[in-house]
Design a protein that fits this description.
The complex is a heterodimer. Helices cover 7% and strands 30% of the residues of chain A. By secondary structure, chain A is mainly beta. In chain A, the strands form three sheets. Chain A has a seven-stranded mixed sheet. In chain A, strands 3-9-7 form a three-stranded antiparallel sheet, with no helix packed on it. A two-stranded antiparallel sheet of chain A has the order 5-6. Chain B is globular and about 80 Å long. Chain B folds into three domains: 187 residues, no CATH class; 94 residues, Thrombin, subunit H; 57 residues, no CATH class.
Chain lengths: 259, 455
């Protein structure tokens, strides 16, 4: 079967929070330097897991493990910054009409089920009970395991997200990652299929925003401070710490940082 | 014939005014609202009187009202013959993504009975008619003779003529061999704000974008291709089972089995603003090159149902039209689904239109004199404009040619180079340095002009 996108859920509304998104005119502090946010816009990105992509095809079988991989196209231009939330596409999960669920895939309801030598079942069909996906583990930057418990950073017991944690139609912003302009800052992903079934859309979706930054000179900083009555209000971005915008205000006690 | 409110004896009055016929009005989604969840509606961003900083400087919001536009997409054709009962259509010549592209060859598509067309362009200048095909002869859309379609309705030849455009409201499904069904980028005339002739006010649209939603099904057989050209699986059709001689009708297997809806799919949309520059895309993949991956694997810059659909618009992908000096955007739609054609795909634009008035310098000085400062909101310029002018991550914002010409014969310091390549919009320079653009070499006024008597 060719690669198939089964679509979004018809009953889930995306959260899409804007409160913590950077906005033009903001000042941020990133790695010790101050930047003015020049522009911000949304960003979508699909990471196809298989090497062939989907012009050739196709699904990944049960137990598929991509290992760690990175995509160099994810590197922003100089003075650009990405904030992206990884999420997983949905694949419908069925219970077959015979009541089994383990690895049933997409049951054919038109085949005969013989009850006795003279009777067969009519009207029975599969039941759509949920959605499954592969699971994703992140190292960002390369070699640094993320989202994991301190005592289990590498043994793969923790740190995975899947369609339960971050579905594509409602990405979980708590798992957002900041990507800076440098090849050494690229995230490494691992995609694992432990669903018991083939997955027909083995893609990691990244959505969020990108910002264009202008590094502020000392005179720019002084001017901004003067205009604001002697205070410089800025947001602190910690790409390798608490990496989502919401954590910034949390880190500073719920209000923008001031000096 | 239904009664008017006045005939019904209610207090409602029939009022004068031209009413376009129903077939002329853009249709509602053919399956209604597919998603059940509540939506994200865009709040009004600015109240009247608010100060806003735009690319062109400081403005005050004068008024605002909501706006809703639904624009259908499909295969663009041109009418080469028309009568009251039939119309001949050919693939639009301007569609260069047909046989010459690496995407699905649209010229090989032939309409089928049940397909719907919008005859006439979806602009405010032209009257349209929404019709349904009930017979097909002739060739495919790209053939010399075109496709000859008999139409279920009576075509109003008084307003539909040869040379008018015709839009086939179906995007064929993609194939892994040929690629996606890709339509050329096009602008939507109605999304261009009208500039009032008698005032200096600036009209600005703030729009959320949502692509149409189409149900996806698993067929009775377990196949994901439960959809034919323009209809879904026929549940009354007899299916021959594979392991016996029994049919699925009567009291045998298959009776009552139905397809299963598993999700909502839709078209993929690229937004180009300004024209030629793909928005919402990663820096390294923001081009229009479709030859290498046949768009099926297009990584970035796609708005789809999961990130911004009509019933769940995502504010991250809002656009401003009319702000600054940007032209209206272009939109490119495609079907990347290999398992389903899309019937009557469309894009919905819902948001607010504002009227902005430039703040005169006298008023600014008064505000500063009274309170020493003033607060304003920011209307962003198109993110990628600077990128469009530069040619890479270290290119000058204004482009190499202009930079070299401006600095011919003088040395360029590292600071000058950094400033030239910082890719900062004039809006940010307004914020950092005030609205004079004093540190913007290309935007600064030449002081000698003051003594030349010119403008």
């Amino acid at each position: 079967m060719a690669r198939v996108n089964f679509g979004r859920s018809p009953t889930v509304r995306g959260y899409n929070p804007m409160e913590n998104t950077l906005k033009p005119g903001y000042i941020i502090k990133l790695r010790g330097k101050f930047y003015a946010v020049d522009s911000v816009e949304g960003l979508t990105y699909d990471l196809v897991v298989t090497a062939q992509g989907n012009t050739n095809g196709t699904e990944v079988s049960d137990a598929y493990d991509s290992g760690y991989f990175e995509d160099e196209d994810l590197e922003p231009f100089r003075n650009h910054l990405y904030c992206l939330v990884p999420s997983l596409y949905r694949q419908p999960k069925f219970i077959s009409r015979s009541g089994t669920y383990d690895g049933v895939g997409f049951p054919n309801d038109t085949t005969v089920v013989t009850v006795s030598s003279t009777q067969s079942i009519g009207g029975a069909s599969r039941t759509h009970v949920g959605d499954i996906s592969g699971k994703v583990f992140l190292k960002h930057p390369a070699g640094i395991a993320r989202w994991s418990a301190d005592e289990a950073p590498e043994n793969d017991k923790t740190g995975f997200i899947d369609v339960n944690t971050s579905p594509v139609d409602d990405p979980n912003p708590n798992f957002a990652i900041w990507i800076e302009s440098s090849e050494s800052m690229l995230p490494n992903f691992r995609f694992l299929n432990d669903t018991g079934e083939a997955l027909f859309y083995p893609v990691i979706n990244l959505s969020g925003f990108k910002a264009r930054l202008k590094e502020m000179s000392p005179s720019d900083i002084e001017e901004a401070r003067r205009i604001n009555g002697g205070r410089l209000v800025y947001k602190l971005i910690v790409p390798q710490g608490l990496p989502y915008a919401g954590a910034i205000t949390a880190e500073t006690g719920g209000s923008p940082n001031m000096i | 014939m239904s009664l008017t409110p006045a005939q019904l004896g209610t207090k409602s009055k029939q009022m004068p005014g031209h009413v376009r016929s129903a077939e002329e009005v853009g249709r509602s989604p053919h399956l209604g609202r597919t998603s059940k969840m509540s939506a994200n509606y865009m709040d009004r961003r600015f109240q009247s009187g608010k100060l806003v900083m735009m690319d062109a400087g400081l403005h005050r919001v004068v008024s605002a009202e909501p706006i809703s536009v639904r624009h259908f997409f499909g295969i663009p054709c041109t009418i080469s013959a028309v009568s009251s009962s039939a119309v001949t259509v050919k693939l639009d010549d301007s569609n260069n993504l047909g046989a010459n592209s690496q995407a699905l060859d649209l010229s090989a598509i032939t309409p089928v009975v049940g397909d719907q067309f919008i005859l006439g362009a979806q602009t405010y200048r032209q009257e349209t008619q929404h019709v349904t095909v009930d017979g097909v002869s002739g060739g495919n859309l790209g053939s010399a003779s075109g496709s000859v379609l008999s139409i279920a309705e009576t075509i109003v030849t008084g307003r539909i003529a040869v040379g008018d455009s015709a839009l086939m409201l179906r995007l064929p499904k993609a194939t892994t061999g040929a690629g996606a069904a890709v339509i050329d980028p096009l602008s939507i005339d109605m999304l261009q704000p009208t500039v009032p002739g008698s005032s200096t006010d600036i009209p600005v649209y703030h729009l959320s974008i949502g692509v149409s939603e189409h149900p996806s099904f698993i067929a009775r057989t377990g196949s994901t291709t439960s959809m034919q050209d323009h209809e879904y699986e026929d549940l009354t059709a007899v299916v021959v089972n594979t392991d016996g001689n029994k049919s699925v009708d009567g009291d045998q297997i298959g009776t009552g089995t139905t397809f299963t809806q598993v999700g909502v799919i839709g078209p993929s949309l690229r937004v180009l603003q300004p024209k030629g520059v793909v928005r919402f895309a990663a820096d390294e993949v923001n081009t229009m090159n479709i030859s290498s991956d046949k768009i099926l694997q297009g990584k970035s810059g796609m708005l789809e149902v999961h990130n911004s659909s009509e019933s769940n618009m995502n504010p991250h992908f809002d656009i401003w039209v009319g702000a600054g000096e940007e032209d209206s955007p272009d939109f490119q739609i495609m079907n990347r689904h290999t398992n389903a054609p899309l019937i009557a795909p469309y894009v919905a634009f819902v948001g607010w239109k504002y009227r902005m008035r430039p703040v005169p310098e006298r008023e600014l000085r008064n505000m500063l004199r009274r309170s020493g400062k003033f607060k304003y909101e920011i209307i962003p310029t198109s993110f990628t404009r600077a990128n469009a002018q530069g040619d890479g991550r270290s290119a000058p914002t204004q482009g190499w040619k202009e930079l070299v010409e401006q600095n011919r014969g003088r040395k360029l310091s590292l600071e000058d180079y950094k400033r030239a390549t910082e890719q900062t919009s004039s809006q940010t320079r307004n914020i950092l340095y005030g609205t004079t653009g004093s540190r913007n070499p290309s935007g600064a006024e030449d002081p000698r002009n003051r003594h030349r008597g010119g403008i």
